[in-house]
Amino acid sequence: MAKEHVWPLPWSVRVRDVLVADVGTHVMSQTPRLEMIVDSLDGAARAGFVRTQRGSFAVPCFMPVGTRGVVRSLSVSDLESLGIEVMLANTYHLALRPGVDIVEEMGGIHGFTGWSGHVLTDSGGFQAYSLPSKIDEDGITFKSVYDGSAFRMTPESAVDAQERLGSDIQMVLDVCPALPASSAVIWEAVQTTLGWAERSLNAHSSSSQAIFGIVQGGIDVDARSCSAKRTAEMGFDGYGIGGLSVGEDRADMLRALEATLSELPDDRPRYLMGVGDPVGLIEAVALGVDMFDCVIPTRLARHGTVLTSSGRMSLRNAKFAKDPRPLDESCVCSTCVSSSRAYLRHLLLVSEPTVLRLLTVHNLVWMMLLMRSAREAIRSGTYDAMRAEIASVWRGSSRARTVA
């Protein structure tokens, strides 16, 4: 296995060469639908690879969110150059615009976008939490965010749409309750999600596309354990952990997460949905989570906030007006190689669109290198030291401290 480079790295190193150095030898011409390979453990934290019929991607990993088939402000070639291996897209949004028929006719999500890496599609269950909708026993009726029309999704139609979109991994339709919630609401969401999971498995017919079940249960450890155990018994290719990072305290989230993971099989990927703050990532990896997605790095970039090894940095602060340094002196991204804080702040203040791409590139590279450092620390048996280092900078809130 090629040795992973640890962060920080010299700026002269090409980011893609750094981030994907440990993947090439693990690509197989013929694979099962999905296979989890764990090559190192440090406590419960694990490093390895997920193999699909498309190839392999290293875990633990962070997946940038390309809701409508694109990561905002970035091109497909940007993603490739950054060493991104998995992108998340959303079935709800793609079904409404441009429509599943068009994406399918254009060669599926890969042909439509020109992206050759892995794609994981979320079913749209989270949109029932975040957008106007009505949930019943059979499915979800949405109000389109584009034109206000009614849009119906059932477990079977979500599976069909994702098979036609052609993603490498699809997620079942689920119910994500808002927190705090009563015990009755939590258990109803668990039971509905379990029923929909079984219906999704029965509807799934692709021999090449993996399907993940989703565990719900809020922060109720009994509900989490029950949901995880029963979902695992169905035999999915992997398991999503939903309904967390929706306003609960981190301690409550981690207790619920630990209860979930104790019931999930070791030989399948575990995917914590919607978590992307550095402490949350590192703590979840310590418990045995393999995959993450979140809008945090791209959304922060669009608002002029960047992630650095010293904490968050808001470029709108006047103290950066004459600062010649890069965003992060330990970062290898093209933005840090070529642009000063002063210049980037200027672009931000004059609303130059170019700055959105430059900051997004930096934030995603920062996240990719954080995950690579986690994999290297697990393999070297030093994960607790890395965990303590990240906590010393970012502990206190999901927002963490601001760079002085």
Determine the structural class based on helices, strands and strand pairing.
Answer: alpha/beta
CATH top-level class of one domain: Alpha Beta
From the N-terminal CA to the C-terminal CA, the straight-line distance is 40 Å
Number of helices: 16
Determine the CATH topology of one domain: TIM Barrel
- The parts where pLDDT drops under 50 for at least 5 residues are 1-14, 23-30, 397-404
Helix content: 40-55%
Outline the biggest β-sheet: 8 strands, parallel
Range of strand content: 15-25%
CATH homology group of one domain: Queuine tRNA-ribosyltransferase-like
Radius of gyration: 20 Å
Write down the overall geometry. globular
Topology:
Layout: H1 15-19, E1 34-42, E2 45-52, E3 56-59, E4 61-64, H2 76-81, E5 86-90, H3 91-96, H4 100-105, H5 108-113, E6 118-122, H6 125-130, E7 133-135, E8 140-143, E9 150-153, H7 155-165, E10 169-171, H8 183-203, E11 210-215, H9 221-233, E12 238-241, H10 250-261, E13 270-272, H11 278-287, E14 291-294, H12 296-302, E15 305-308, E16 311-314, H13 334-338, H14 341-349, H15 354-380, H16 383-394
Parallel strand pairs: 4-14, 5-6, 6-10, 10-11, 11-12, 12-13, 13-14
Antiparallel strand pairs: 1-2, 2-3, 7-8, 8-9, 15-16
Task: Characterise this structure.
An 8-stranded parallel sheet has the order 4-14-13-12-11-10-6-5. A 3-stranded antiparallel sheet has the order 1-2-3. The chain has a domain at 60-300: Alpha-Beta Barrel (TIM Barrel). It is 40% helix and 18% strand. Helix 8 runs parallel beside helix 9 (221-233). The chain contains 16 helices and 16 strands. The longest helix is centred in the last third of the chain and has 27 residues, at 354-380. With 404 residues, the protein is α/β, with parallel strands linked by helices.
